[in-house]
Amino acid sequence: MQTYYYVLASQKFLLEEEPFEEVLKERNRHYKEQEKEIDFWLVKQPAFLEAPKMAEIKAKCPQPSVAIVSTDPQFITWLKLRLEYVITGEFEAPSETIPDAIASME
């Protein structure tokens, strides 16, 4: 099982009100310079929120939602510090209620 970390927000906030596209471009550039494999994904209407144990988190986030999911907890912490009005957390997949997260993100 893999642990995934996430930042969750409304699509309107993250994709329209925040200049988030620039953050992703900068992160991609940094990874290329470091020859590091991409370990984060932008996921609209993330399926992991449908798991029963995520119901409380889903209820807190305006819909439709979007998540930035990563295997790097430091990246998610950095995003949380940079952005306001986001929810952070983690989950393990695959599990009984959450399918293989990477397969559902691609």
Strand content: 25-35%
Largest sheet: 4 strands, antiparallel
Quickly give the structural class.
Answer: alpha+beta
Give helix and strand order, one letter per element, not per position: EHHEHEHEH
Shape assignment: globular
Number-wise, the strands total 4
Rg over CA atoms, rounded to whole Å, is 13 Å
**Number of helical segments with 4 or more residues:** 5
pLDDT < 50 runs, ≥5 residues: none
State the end-to-end CA separation.
18 Å
With strands numbered from the N-terminus, the spatial order across the biggest sheet is 2-3-1-4
Overall mean pLDDT stands at 88
Helix content: 40-55%
Structure description:
The protein is α+β, with helices and mostly antiparallel strands and 106 residues long. The protein is built from five helices and four strands. The chain has a four-stranded antiparallel sheet with strand order 2-3-1-4. The longest helix has 15 residues, at 20-34. The protein starts with a strand and ends with a helix.
Key attributes of the depicted protein:
alpha+beta; 106 residues
Write the layout of secondary structure elements.
Elements: E1 2-10, H1 11-17, H2 20-34, E2 40-44, H3 55-60, E3 65-70, H4 73-82, E4 87-93, H5 101-105
Antiparallel strand pairs: 1-3, 1-4, 2-3
